[in-house]
Each structure stands twice: as structure tokens, then as C-alpha cells.
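Follow-up to my post from last week.
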Amino acid sequence: MKPTLTIVGDTFQWILDNTDSLLEQTIQHLNVSLTSVFIALVLWIPLGLFVHEHEEFAPPVIGTAGMILTLPSLALLPLLIPVVGIGVAPAVVALVLYSALPMIRNTFTGLDEVDESMIRAGRGLGMTDRELLFKVKIPMALPVIFAGIRQAAVLVIGITTIAAFFGAGGLGEAIFAGIRLDYPRQVLGATIVVSALAIATDYGLLLVQRSLPGGSLSDES
Amino acid sequence: MIELDNATKVYGDGTVAVEDVSFEVEEGETVTLVGPSGCGKTTTMTMVNRLTEISDGDIRIDGTSVLDQDPIELRRNIGYVIQEIGLFEHMTVAENISIVPDLRGWSDEEKSARVEELLDLIELPQTVADQYPGNLSGGQRQRVGVARAMAAEPDIILMDEPFGALDPITRQNLQEEFLEIQRALDVTIMFVTHDIDEALKMGDKVAVLRDGELVQYDAPKDLLGSPKNEFVADFIGEDRVLKQLTAVSVREVMTAPKDGDGAGERPLSPEESLKVALQRILQDGSPKMVVENGEVVGRLTEADVAAVAGARASEVLQQ
Amino acid sequence: MTLGVHASWVLSSAFTGWIDYIVANQDQFLSLLEGHLVMVGIGEFLAISVAVPAGIAATRDPRAARIIENLGAVAQTIPALGVVALTFTFLGLGKAPTILAITLYALFPILKNTVAGIQNIDDSKTRAGRGMGMTNLQRLRRIELPLALPVIFAGIRTSTVLCVGVAYIGVFVGAGGLGVWIQSGLTSVNYDVMLAGAIPGALTVIAFDRGFSVLESLVTPEGVSREEMADSGAAA
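User reply:
Got it. Predicted complex:
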């Protein structure tokens, strides 16, 4: 058992001593995370839109996305490696898959929950379906859709730490190395940094979400 | 101007919502559609702008069938106001009002000029233009809803229980304001309501519907004076006489002034209701003169009122 | 990893290689699986024993409920690997620290759902109970818990799924479990071994998810619509 108080002090010292490599790993980490979130956005939000317009597809699509999310990352990543190799590739694929549920579900419910009366009024005034979608539904659903993106982003940052084990780089590497070399300061330090990264991302995106028109009402997922 | 010709709506599962409804709305007229819940009044009205597609029969606007027109264009030419109002919460009041002009490609100057004009018409301060619907009261929002419907200068406005969600006092204010707007503009209006008093007050003609069929179509005065059947009489209510007195104006009943008639004491104005007129007549028992813009234009006696509202009119008023 | 390794693996009896491996190493497989499930079981059990009472207590104090909600939101953003790393830092290697990590990670979904499940009960129902002269405890047992049960179960389902994931991560700090094969499979570039560690875990998770789903519907009182508060799982 290690004396816990000195560990905390040592850890912060370690962080200060290693800012360079930490920064490099953080950038690597963000690289993987942001790439994945971006690809996921481009894939899943349109799919969420599609599912909203063709509700019969909602249960299977959302159900599948949900099921994928239950798979432990340590189980999913190995499944991808024989197909795309190790390194950043399986990580990005897995992260994009994990992002599916929050993004699709939030896009779907966000659009669905737009007040009926607005849609009826819009239609009665002569708006086409497309105009309704882009001028009313999407703007109104934006905070909820954004909340989904935010959820996915936090998820992705967390799972990227594990992906380091399979060669994706990032802050997870420092954690793994620290465990391997029995260097608690490093383990704790890297954990603090990545947790801070996740919390900061969550909070930062929450502020953006709230600043969207209508966003201050939307808070949770 | 709007002609309903055996308009019928049958749904896929066989329910007949509207059956063979026929009536005509003249240009500039306001027709109220009234009836118990489920009678088909909203369905009938929404067949005019094709939010509900007519199953049989026809609806013609200025001679052209609505089925021959593109539904989107049709709706952009017709104003539409609903009970829940449905203002776009993410747009400012100005953006809400100018939505149809915007869809039609009006310039920014044209749009802001129109918004300014309409805000004056609905008696809201210009500062409201940049506010969001969330900050407005129920009455203010419905006014904006009405302005939004009128923005593209439609010839026809359809209103579906527009004042239904408001408290009685606001509702009355809006009704009165709307009557004024009506008089100022040259629009044809179809107005759905479940409230017979509102229907009688707002309509130049009233269409009473029941179970999808048109039961009676008459001016308020005639509807009150000669209800076609028991249903209509019941629907109007027991205080029919009082309603008549309130709904009919002096202008509709006054007779020509006799030579030598001066304005007399406490003359009446032509727009006042028979109720007010009768009250005044009964105060001193003598006939009253009707004056407009300083000129004597008519004469009203207790007998004149009784001819329309029935022999019991005075009795009812004195209760 | 060279293309050659890929190709040869894919061309060989790729898709069933992992099954052969499990069959050939049954004893080890069962022991790893057992170790994995034991960690999940203990961790989940501890989490439930702490979170449900705590959740019930929190609904009695609105301030506490809000504090928990905020804490929980922060806690859930800490990556699972981070939680395991933390317990390792203070408690060292082995199963015990990992079980603690599992418990901590599973706590909040259950806590959040217990609070939400009870708070979402229509006031009229608890008032009816009070009106009939029930004590607080009776109301809890007969009205609140039964009505909140489906939501609480949904939370248990979510957290159990999470537990399996965190248990996997325990392999890095010497906890054993199916992660052992994933790790050795990766380092020796043997996909069969790696998949033999991964696929059973995935199947277990799916089984748990479906199983709990059934349990949830059994536990839902008739005529009550089940409102799922929790996200349907988040991978560790």
C-alpha cells in the first residue's frame, strides 16, 4: 500500500515535469477522437434524419446501434483488427460505431419532438416538406441533436484511452506504460489529464449547446 | 368567392367526416362554421386549402377548383391561423410574420415594411419585432399569428378556433379587434369555432354543422329568428332572445326617420346592439333616433325590436 | 501486422478458429470466464446494495438528489480505464481493486435510475397511499418500489453491461478474466486467441442485455408503461 497523500503531490509534479510528452499524447488522442466524431457525424446524423422520415426503420436501426454500444471496447476492437489491422484504423471504426446510438437516437427524437402545432401552422401557410425540415424542424431539434454529439464525444474520448492498447496512441499509452512499469505517478497523472480532457469537452460542448437558440431549455441528453 | 359544392370527406377506414356540404362565401364576407365537437367543421375548412384532401364533390375559389391548383401555391395564397398558434419559437416575431413573403422571395425592405404595417394593424409596439415568441403573452402571440396569416396579402384567411386557447377577457378583446381589422381590410374569412356566441358575433353568415352535414346556413339574425330544427335551437341555447338582442345591430332593424324627427335625447348609433338600444328605449318608454356622423338616419321603437327578437324581448331584458 | 498475416488468417479457417481454440483449452476458458463473471457479479451486487438505498434516501432530500445528479454526470465522464487505473494506484494489482472499480463505475447508472424511477412516480399515487394511512415504509414497499422497479431494473441492466466491460479492462492490472486471451492474442499476433477472448464477452453482454430486458418486463406492473431513463449502455 502506498502512502496516498504524497502520491497526489508527486503526481502533479510528474504532470508538470512531463507536459511535453503529455501534450503530444493529448494531441494524438484528440486526433483520433475528433476524426471519429466527425466521421460519425457525417454518417449518423443523416441516418437519423432518414429514420425520422421513415419511422418503420427506427426500431431496427436504433436497436442495432444500441446493441453495438453494449459491446465492451475490449471485445469490439479485437473483432475489427483482423479486418483493418491494428493502430488508428480499428480505433476509429469502433469509435464511429459507438457514436451511432447517441447521434441517431438524438436526431430522431429531436426531430420527432418538435411541436406539432408549429408543423401544422407551417404546412398550412404553404411550406413544402423540405422547407419545413430545414427552416423549422432542424433548427428546433438542434439542441437535442447537439446533445447527442456531445454524448458521443465524451464516450469517444473515454474509449480512445483503451484503444491505445491496440496501437492508436494517445493518453492511454501513458496509462498502460505506467501500469507496466509500476509507476503510479504516471498512471494517476495520465488518468487525471484524460479525465480532465473528457470533463472539459463535456462542459465546453454543453456551453455551446446552451448557446444554441432554444438550447438553454434542453439540458440533459 | 369560395364555393363548396357537395364537399365530402370519407376516410380510409370508412368514417364519413363531411357529407355533401354546399354553401357559398361571398367576397369580403366572414363565415363562421360552428357545431358540436366532431361535426366536421375543421375538416370542411381544411379542405379549402387542401390540408385535407376532398374525397368527393368540389371546392372552387373564384370559379377555379382547388384540385386544379398546386397545393403549396394554394396555401401560400391563403392565410391560416390555428388554435395553438404554432409560432416558430426559434424565429423572431418579425421572422415569423414574414415567413410566407420570405418563401416568396420578397426583398428585405419589402418584408420589414410589411412587418411594420402589420404590427400597427394588430396594435403591437414595433419593439416586439425582434423579440422571440417565448417572451410574449398568449394574446400577443395570437395577434402575431393573425399577422403572420395576413403577411402575404391573401384574399382568404382560414381560422381554426383561433381564440380558443385564450382566457375569456383576452378572447373578447381579440374578437373585437379582429372585427375592426375585418372591417378595415377586404378579406374573405372562414372561421371555425365551437362557441355559438363567438360564431354569431364574428360571422356575417353562420354555417351550423352536425355529424358532417350542413344543418343551416344563415345570417346570425335569421339563424336566431328562425332556427330550422330542434338541434339548431338547442345549440343556440335557451337564451336565444338575449343572444339575438346582442348579435343584431340597430342598423339591421331601424326604420326610416319621419319628417321633422330631431336627434332627441340619447340617440343610438347604427352599430350598437339591439340589447343596448332596447335598454335605452325601455328607460323612458319612448322610441329612439339613430344618428350617424351627426345626421339622423333612422328610428327605432320597441315594436321594431320585438318584430325581430320576439314578443318576449322586453321581458327578457328586464329580468 | 503484415498483409501476409491478414491474408493467411482470413484464408484459413478464420471464422471458426477461435471456437477451436476455446474447445482445445476448455479448462482455461472456463476458469477465465468464471473469473470474469465473478468480478461482474460481486461488483454489480455491491453497486446495487449501495446505490438503491442511497437512491431512495436521496429522493427524500431534493438537494441531495441534485448533488448526486451533478456528481454522477462528472463521474460518468471519467473513462473506465481511468477508474481502473485509479484503484490500481491506491490498491495495487489483482481482482479486488478491479472489483472496486467495477462497483464504482456501476454505481451511478443504478443511482440515477433509482432516483429518477421514484421521482417520476405520479404524486397522486403516493398521496393515495398516505391518505389510506400507510406508513412511509409501507408506502415505499407497496407503491414506490414496485412502480420504480422497471426503471431501476433498466439501470441495473445498463450497469451490468458496463461491468463486463470494466472487468475486461481489469486484465491490465492483473485481474484475469477473458481479457487475458485478448492481451496474449494481441501480443503474439494470434487472432484466434484474441477472438476467443473477445467473442464470448460480447455474447455474454448480449445475453445479459436480453435477459435483463425480459426481467424488466416481468417486473413491470400491468398497465404501467415502462420509461427507460438510462442510456442503453455505454461501452467501457
